[in-house]
Design goal:
single chain; 92 residues; alpha+beta; Alpha-Beta Plaits; 35% strand
């Protein structure tokens, strides 16, 4: 069974930032500069964590993975147009 996660990161060096971005681009929906929405199985989540850990410098970079509730709504303000499938949205 898949669960939803928000993955966001702050990477200190541009080369590592590019590698993390390219890796994440194939794993989820790119919502904002360093923010992705991912729908992952437990095994996929473990693989994602392992790969990101290999790509970053744990002394300089910060990666956060937030689990989302199974039934949630998103509030979109401004020009945000990337919303994961199956998610209810409130536009303001």
């Amino acid at each position: 069974m898949k669960a939803n996660y928000v993955v966001c990161y702050d990477i200190a060096k541009p080369a590592r930032l590019g590698r993390v971005y390219r890796f994440m681009k194939g794993r989820g929906i790119h919502l904002q500069y360093s923010v992705f929405h991912c729908s992952l199985t437990w095994r996929e989540l473990q693989q994602l964590k392992e790969k990101i850990s290999d790509l970053i410098d744990e002394e300089a970079d910060d990666v956060r993975i937030y689990p989302l509730p199974s039934d949630y709504k998103v509030i979109v303000l401004g020009c945000g147009d990337r919303v994961p499938d199956g998610i209810g949205i409130f536009l303001e």
